[in-house]
Design a protein that fits this description.
alpha/beta, two-stranded parallel ribbon, 13 helices, binds nicotinamide-adenine-dinucleotide, binds 7alpha-hydroxycholesterol, transmembrane, steroidogenesis, oxidoreductase, lipid metabolism
C-alpha cells in the first residue's frame, strides 16, 4: 500500500453524488480520504443534506448539472484529479423511455470521458453493474462466479444494455491521452444488488407489508440465490479504487471488479426479510404462493397495462417480466480480485451492515417502531 502524506491537495468530483450510492460515497470520502481538498458533488437534483457537509474542513461544492450536457460536465470537472461517475438512470420498471436511459447512461458516460480528456482529469472510476454480465435473457444461472467466469451475456432490456455499452466506453478509454499528455486511467466496479440505508425497493416492500397487515407473500423460490452487497462496502470499494489507481495504474487500469462482501447468499425476498422481520413483517409461505406461470401471466398483464395506461398515467409496478426473470435467476459472485489488486477488505461486517439497515427501516416514517 502506498504511504500517503496527509496533505489535502486533491479535488474529487462525484457525479450522481446525491443518489442512494452517491450519498454514501460522498460522506465516506469526507471521512476516509485525508488527501481531499475539495469535493465536488454533481447531480441533476441536489439534496438539502449537502448543506451540513459544507461546515467541515474539506471544501464541498454542490453543482447542479446534467451528465447529458457535455459543457456542464466539462465545466464541473475542470481542475479535478479524480472523477467517480456514479450518476445513472436506474430503471427496470418502465419509468423512463429506452431513449432517455441510453442518453443518460451511455451519452452521459461518453461526456464524462470526453471531459476527462479535455480538462486533463487523469483518473476515472465508473459504477457499472452486475447486469453488464447478467442474468441474461435466457435465465442461465451464474453461481458464485468471478470476473473471469464464462457467461453468455445477452441483454434485451434498455437498462443492462446501457450499462454494458457505458462500461465498454470506460474500459476502452483507458490509456487515452488527456490534456497535458498523460494517460487516462479508468476502472469499472460492478455491484450486485446493493442494499442498505436509503434503498428504495426495501422501502417499497416495507410499506407494502404494512399495508397487508405486516405480511409479505413469497413469490420467488428460496433456492434462487441473488447476489447482494452493502452500500457502505460498495462506497468503500470506490474510494479505495480512486486512491490506488495512481499507484497501480498498470495493474488496475482498464479492469473490472465485482463489488462483494460477506453478505449471505439468499433469495431476493429472504434476504430482504433479514431487515424486515426484525421490523415486524412476516414472509408468508415456504414456497411461492402462486405458480410461476401465473406470476408470468400477471407480469405480462402489468406490462400490457403499463403500455395501455401510458397516455394517461405512469403505471410502474415492481412485478414485470424483466424483474420477475431477474429475481428468479440465480446470480451470485465469489471473487477476491479486488483484494488481490488493491487490498480491498469489506469495511462493514455482515452483522454491522444488517444492524445499520434494520435501524434505518425502524426509523422510517410511518414505521411501527
Ligand atoms: N442500486 C443498485 O442496486 C445498483 C446496483 C449496481 C449498480 N448500480 C449503479 O450505481 C449507480 C447509482 O445507483 P443508485 O442506486 O444510487 O441510483 P440513484 O437513482 O439513487 O442515484 C443516481 C443519481 O444519479 C443522478 N442522475 C440521474 N440522471 C442524471 C443526469 N442526467 N445528470 C446528473 N445526475 C443524474 C440522480 O439524480 C441520482 O442522484 C448507477 O450508475 C447504477 O447503475 C446500482
Ligand atoms: C417477483 C417480484 C415481486 C420481486 C421483484 C424484485 C425486483 C424488484 C428486484 C429483484 C432483483 C433486483 C435487481 C438486482 O438486485 C440488481 C440490479 C442491478 C442494478 O444495476 C440496478 C438495480 C437492479 C436492477 C435490481 C432492481 C430490483 C430487482 C429487479
Amino acid at each position: 500500500m502506498a504511504d500517503y502524506a496527509q496533505v489535502p491537495t486533491l479535488v474529487y468530483l462525484v457525479t450522481g453524488g446525491c443518489g442512494f450510492l452517491g450519498e454514501h460515497i460522498v460522506r465516506m470520502l469526507l471521512e476516509q480520504e485525508p488527501r481531499l481538498r475539495e469535493l465536488r458533488v454533481f447531480d441533476l437534483h441536489l439534496s438539502s443534506w449537502l448543506e451540513e457537509l459544507k461546515a467541515g474542513p474539506v471544501q464541498v461544492t454542490a453543482i447542479q448539472g446534467d451528465v447529458t450536457q457535455a459543457h456542464e460536465v466539462a465545466a464541473a470537472m475542470s481542475g479535478s484529479h479524480v472523477v467517480i461517475h456514479t450518476a445513472g438512470l436506474v430503471d427496470v420498471f418502465g419509468k423512463a423511455s429506452p431513449k432517455t436511459i441510453h442518453k443518460v447512461n451511455v451519452q452521459g458516460t461518453q461526456n464524462v470521458i470526453d471531459a476527462c480528456v479535455q480538462t486533463g482529469t487523469q483518473y476515472l472510476v465508473y459504477t457499472s453493474s452486475m447486469e453488464v454480465v447478467g442474468p441474461n435473457i435466457k435465465g442461465h444461472p451464474f453461481y458464485r462466479g468471478n470476473e473471469d467466469t464464462p457467461y453468455e451475456a445477452v441483454h434485451s432490456h434498455p437498462y443492462p444494455c446501457s450499462k454494458a455499452l457505458a462500461e465498454k466506453l470506460v474500459l476502452e478509454a483507458n490509456g487515452r491521452k488527456v490534456n497535458g499528455g498523460l494517460p487516462l486511467v479508468t476502472c469499472a466496479l460492478r455491484p450486485t444488488g446493493i442494499y442498505g440505508e436509503g434503498h428504495q425497493v426495501i422501502r417499497d416492500m416495507y410499506y407494502q407489508g404494512l399495508r397487508f397487515g405486516g405480511r409479505l407473500f413469497r413469490a420467488i423460490p428460496a433456492s434462487v440465490e441473488h447476489g447482494r452487497v452493502y452500500v457502505g462496502n460498495v462506497a468503500w470499494m470506490h474510494i479505495l479504487v480512486a486512491r490506488e489507481l495512481e499507484q497501480r495504474a498498470a495493474l488496475m487500469g482498464g479492469q473490472v471488479y465485482f463489488c462483494y462482501d460477506k453478505s449471505p447468499y439468499k433469495s431476493y425476498e429472504d434476504f430482504n426479510m433479514e431487515f424486515l422481520s426484525p421490523c415486524g413483517l412476516r414472509l408468508i409461505g415456504a414456497h411461492p404462493l402462486l405458480p410461476y406461470w401465473l406470476l408470468m401471466l400477471l407480469a405480462a398483464l402489468n406490462a400490457l397495462l403499463q403500455w395501455l395506461l401510458r397516455p394517461l398515467v405512469l403505471y410502474t409496478p415492481l412485478l414485470n417480466p424483466y424483474t420477475l426473470a431477474m429475481a428468479n435467476t440465480t446470480f451470485t459472485v465469489s471473487t477476491n480480485k479486488a483484494q488481490r489488486h488493491f487490498g480491498y477488505k469489506p469495511l462493514f461486517s455482515w452483522e454491522e451492515s444488517r444492524t445499520r439497515t434494520i435501524h434505518w427501516v425502524q426509523t422510517m416514517e410511518g414505521s411501527a417502531w
